[in-house]
Every structure is written in structure tokens, then in C-alpha cells.
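User: Teach me something about this protein's shape.
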Amino acid sequence: MPPGPRVLVLDGDYPTSLTIARELSADLEATIVGAGTTRYSRLCRSRYCDVAVTIPSPDDPDYIEALWTVLEATRPQIVLPVGYESAAAIESTRDELPAYTAVCLPGPDAFETAADKTATMGLAERVGIEVPADYSSLVETLDAEGRERGALEALEFPLFCKARREAGGGGETTARVVDPARFWEVYDRLEEASPTGEVLVQESIDGSSVTYGCGLFCRNGAVELRMAHEELRSVPRRGGSGTHLRLRPDPALESAASDLLRALEWDGVALVECKRRADGDLVLMEINPKFWASYALASAHGYRFASRLVATTLGLEDRLPERSPEPTGEMTFPLRELYYYARNRKEERLLECVRAVARPGVPWNVDRSDLGAWLTPPATVLERLPTVTAGQKRAADREAVAFTRR
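Assistant: First, the predicted structure itself:
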């Protein structure tokens, strides 16, 4: 059998990159070139990483130049961005990719629509999908008039605020506001975190605390694989990344998500997220135009989006193992839950957090055969450790290419 494909997996600081590397190694016998921001990045320490490279983070002005250096040195057959920022960077320069390297990403118009939540809502309405009521213009008017006392009486609380554009980077850019007295405090915080300084203010869909997600892989708008799940617990507690999820076949959600991505003629993976009103009606929240943070649930239960994407793009469909995805299953994400507790100890209770993820019979997303990588703290934590100073990290960021062959 010929050797497997060489795949450059970006965003090696993210736990999702570990899941993807393991999946591609198992399904396609891929050679994984793992890119992280330092030699301490999770993927660079993984047993499934064959060649480790360090490049700056995608918001660094030297990112594209460093990425091109990696491409020339490692010559991968395909580049797989995991996070939003790396996908956006490659999307903006995809015409300059060398001929030997492929990429599977939506076109620029589709990507822009998904990244801009206002544009996403407009598209959803055109294809007949319900969206939340929007109060952003009214809030902008109130803000311009000086935030007079009592001006918020025109709004119905609770409200949900979020950055207009996809931010990436893991920062909190969403919040549910119940108390009008805290509205401007939250609004200002999100305005500062928003990439464009724009904040959407929408009705809070309070029929259920559960968020419903549908992951899809599409080629030219045709849906090739999809999977629905429900997010039972998340961090932050409303609109964040899941820490307890469950597969849940949902024909209405899957149909709406498919219609939305077909309208965009989508290429690649995406997660469509919705809420439900008290009467059960679906309401669109957003399109997440990348691999989602809870992707491990899909991969572990046979929904191998990464393998299908790579195989389809490179014409290796015959190399994919035969498997039937499982219709049911659960997973918890303990490290994500505990990191959140560590940052919010005044508001959170440790015992409750532990109970939420230590559920009998429910597996963790952590790969016990690759603990050295999984237990590596996030890059933001490593920057504060004495063994990895901020200065050392900046120096590592600017290495042209640093390899560790395994």
C-alpha cells in the first residue's frame, strides 16, 4: 500500500488538533506535520505528530511568511487549519499556495458571510430559518445619546450580547445579560473584545439552556457528512464551548443546517448552532466556520469529518476504513471545565464542576495514550510559567522553522 498523505495540521495549541492528528493517523496512515506556537504546544508533544514545527500565532504579522517557509520545507499534500484565525489567514492568500499543497475551505464570500453574524442572520431569513430579534441599532442609538438613566427601559431583558464577527483565540465574546444595571458594563467588555468593536444585542432564547449543534462536511454545497448533538453544559455557561455533550439525531436541525450551507455553496467543515424556543421552534445562533471545540465527540463516535475532508480533497476515498457512525453517545471535556473553574473561582463551585464532567459511563475527550500532550497547559498558561517566559515565547515564535523528527 502506498504511504499515507502528508498533512500539515495547524493550531497545535488547541486540543482539537490532537483529536484530528490521531484520527488522520488511524484512518489514512497520514504523516502529521504539527504546527504550534512553541515547542511546548500540545500537538508538538503528541505521539501522533511526526514532524513538529513552530510558527507564530495567526495574528502575528510574520505568520504567513513563516507558514510559507514551513510549506516549502515539509511539502504537505494538504493544509488543515483548525482554528478560525488560521483558516481566515489561508483563505485570504489561498491563490498563492504552492501547487503541491491543497486546501479545503469555503470561497471568500461564503467565509465572510459565516464570519459576520449579521450577514449570517440575513442569509438565514432568506432561506426560511428563524433568527433572534435584534436590538443592536436601538442600543447604538441609546449609546450615542449618552446612556441616559432609564434609557434601557425600551429593551426586554434578559438579552444576549455577542461580538458581530468571529473572533478566534478562545476569548469570551458572548454574554447573557439579565440585570439592566450590568448591561453597559457587559456591552463595553464585549465591545473591547470584538475584532471590529461591534456588538450584536439580541433577544435571549430562553426556552431551554441547551444549545443544539449540527456539524457538516460539504463539497461545493453538497452535504457529504453531518452529525447533530446537544450541548448540555458549556463554558461560559451560555453560548460557550461544551463540556458535556450528547449525540442527538435531529431531522429539523440537520435539514436547516444543510439548507444554510447549501445556500452558501460551502466547501469544508462547519458547525451550525441553534437554540429552541419553549414551543420547540429552532432559532439560529451562528455558523462556526471551522472545526468546532467539541469535535472529539464526533470523531470518537465514527463521524470522521477530518478524514473524510482529507480523503475527498486528495482523491483517497478508497483508503477510508468502512465504519458506521453511532447514533447515540456522550462525552465530557474535563480539562476545559476545570480551566474555566480556575479562572472563575469566585462564581463557580469546584464540586459542582467535577460532578458535571465525572459522570459514570460517560467517557472523557482526553486520550489516555497521549497524556503528555493532553495535559500540557494552554499556551496562555505556559507564558506565565518561569520555564517559558514571554521573551522565550516571542523568540520561539520567530524561528523560521524548528523541527523535531520522531
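Now, about its shape. The longest strand covers residues 222-235. The CA atoms of residues 38 and 393 lie 7 Å apart. If you'd like, I can walk through any region in more detail.
User: That's plenty for now, thanks!
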